[in-house]
Design a protein that fits this description.
Length: 424
């Protein structure tokens, strides 16, 4: 049936008119596939030119979005509402403007399209043209507009889409300082480094609050280059991020943002600030098995002996690859997923920096016990080599060996049994 629309088979089209499958009529199918002659015949046969697909998209919007001026003309001639819109207020004029189809835009305007119509977000066709970098089309639509769109909305849109030339032309017209500040935050959030740098160089009086907000957004989206530029201009490296913890903590938690961690530390981030769950960056880096970050944090003054609310220190986090610590129900990374070698290296770095290898948490557990229970074989081996005491018992009377036995960690059991025998 849909193939009929594509072939423009007149007789079959008359029979199958508006009997499309999958929620689309034959007319909509023909419009989507750009079959102009079929559309013309369907309109003449009485098809509804205001046809909508299941998403609420009108045939005219689809034609405009595809840049098909011939079909646009046929639909309008057949009674299509030129200012019809979908569920979010998107019109055919906005569709054509966003794609840069100036001939279709002109056709729609000549047929009465409203250049001042806005969608549910307050954006008109000029904003859509600007956001996609169609500068000449934007200028034309903007000049025809009788009720100018809010400049803040316009600047926000072009900033979000990284349209540098249009953005600075808008700013050069003269805007409120708060509009420039909003643009900085949006640019940082979307990682438009070149625009960010130019904004910082042109507008030297950005408030510290705005700079920190931009830093938070850039860091939250992992834009390390933007983070560096903002830190270099004086943003506070101890800013709290979008998830409620200092940015350093959040960068360490993501683990892949090593460059950002280093930059935050170099620009003054406090290595001992705690996240909202009470952990330090050192604990998180140790749990992630990132020996490089553990070393860097210690270099910048991280306290190796800090413990969280359950008495666990960074060595215990390295030993068990503790993933979460919001409550007393400990979650472990699967030993097949955890970088056990990295955790072993992190444990060694911590011991070399003076952490007590046999320190106990509030349950009386040592790092060796945590490693044994979670099956971290490489860590168990490293701790034993570093002279961890295998005979210590926790408050329930268990040793590292009995913890391994309870969890059926066969290889760990073998190593600890042999070690206990040697040291017994």
């Amino acid at each position: 049936m849909m193939n009929s629309a594509r072939r423009s088979d007149w007789d079959i089209l008359r029979i199958l008119l508006n009997k499309g499958k999958s929620g689309k009529s034959v007319l909509m199918e023909a419009v989507w596939f750009g079959r102009g002659k079929a559309v013309k015949k369907l309109i003449r046969a009485g098809a509804n030119a205001n046809e909508q697909d299941p998403s609420g998209m009108t045939a005219l919007i689809v034609a405009a979005m595809n840049g098909d001026r011939f079909i646009v003309k046929q639909l309008i001639a057949g009674g299509a509402e030129v200012n019809g819109h979908n569920a979010s207020g998107w019109t055919a004029l906005m569709a054509a403007a966003s794609r840069g189809y100036q001939d279709v835009v002109t056709e729609l305007i000549d047929c009465g399209a409203d250049v001042d119509a806005t969608n549910d977000c307050g954006m008109n066709a000029a904003v859509f043209a600007a956001s996609q970098g169609h500068e000449q089309l934007f200028e034309m639509l903007d000049s025809l507009s009788k009720t100018k769109v809010c400049v803040r909305t316009l600047v926000d849109s072009v900033s979000r889409h990284g349209q540098k030339d249009i953005l600075f032309k808008l700013l050069d017209r003269g805007v409120d300082a708060s509009v420039v500040e909003d643009a900085l935050v949006v640019v940082a959030e979307n990682g438009h480094y070149d625009i960010l740098v130019e904004l910082l160089s042109r507008y030297l009086s950005m408030s510290r609050t705005v700079m920190n907000e931009a830093l938070k957004e850039a860091a939250g989206c992992g834009h390390t280059d933007c983070v560096f530029a903002l830190l270099e201009r004086g943003s506070d490296a101890n800013t709290v991020g979008n998830f409620g913890s200092p940015l350093l903590m959040e960068a360490v938690e993501w683990n892949h943002l090593k460059t950002m961690v280093m930059d935050l530390l170099r620009f003054g981030a406090d290595a001992n600030l705690r996240g909202k769950d009470g952990r330090t960056a050192l604990m998180v880096a140790a749990a992630n098995g990132s020996a490089e970050i553990v070393t860097e944090l210690l270099k910048y003054g991280a306290n190796v002996d800090d413990v969280e609310k359950y008495g666990r220190n960074a060595l215990m986090y390295a030993a068990a690859a503790i993933e979460a610590n919001v409550d007393n129900n400990v979650d472990f990374l699967d030993e097949n997923q955890a970088d056990m070698l990295g955790n072993a290296q992190s444990a060694q770095v911590l011991v070399e920096h003076g952490i007590n290898i046999d320190a106990t948490d509030f349950q009386g557990r040592t790092a060796l016990m945590w490693a044994a229970e979670s099956g971290m074989l490489s860590v168990v081996q490293r701790l034993i080599a570093l002279k961890a005491d295998v005979h210590i018992r926790d408050l329930t009377g268990n040793t590292a060996l009995t913890h391994a036995i309870k969890q059926k960690k066969t290889e760990v059991i073998q190593i600890l049994t042999a070690t206990e025998s040697c040291k017994g």
